[in-house]
Amino acid sequence: MIRNVIFDIGNVLVSFHPVEYFYPVFKEKTETLCTYVFGSKEWALYDQGILTKEEVEKNLLDTYPKDKDAILYILTHWKEFMKPIMPMKKLIEVLKEKGYKIFLLSNISEDSYLYLKREYPYFFDVDGGMYSYRIKSNKPDKKIYEELLSVYGINASESLFLDDRKENVDAAKALGFHGMIMEDVDVTCDRIRKRLKEE
User: TM segments (predicted)?
Assistant: First the structure.
């Protein structure tokens, strides 16, 4: 029986579409620039709390000096494209009313966490959360999942995990979680309601 529902943050609770957001500024070069930043090992280490934003900036500028102005622009404005996915807010409210425990499990830097908690505090009014920057581990590494289970004393077999990346859902399933991949938001909300109704 599922007692806990666990949500990723990026592209589950808030949008994370940098290419779409920055395209009006950089046009055809947008995808390349966003890969430089958000697809970099530096960004992964930033999420893990191992590198600071300043260190990420320095490393990226050393690597891509010809794109200095564009990278600085992205690093200055990137938080602006994270907007709340409101149907998920409503879903969480309904699940709380029905007695489910709600947790967050996200690869996220401390800067992002503090920004989102300030801008959209309702998403953090939950029973707990595990964030990569706190434990220096990113999904799909099993450490972050196991830490969530240990800290909050919950069972994987009683937990449904929702993430937008298949590899993260697969890692959760390997540890005994129920898993679901975030797709179209309305379809996903309906799937979750149906899945829990079958319990």
Answer: none
User: Which residue range is the domain that position 136 belongs to?
Assistant: 4-15+82-197
Q: What is the pLDDT of residues 6-15, one digit of tens each?
A: 999 999 999 9
Read off the pTM.
Answer: 0.95
112 in Cβ contact with 142 (< 8 Å): no
CA–CA gap between residue 140 and residue 143 (Å, rounded): 8
Same domain, 127 and 72: no
List the Cα angle 113/114/118 in 5-degree steps. Answer: 115
Q: Are 70 and 138 found together in one domain?
A: no
- Tell me the Ramachandran region of residue 102: left when phi exceeds 0, alpha when psi lies from -120 to 50, beta otherwise: beta
Question: Which residue, 163, 155, 104, is CA-closest to 129?
Answer: 104
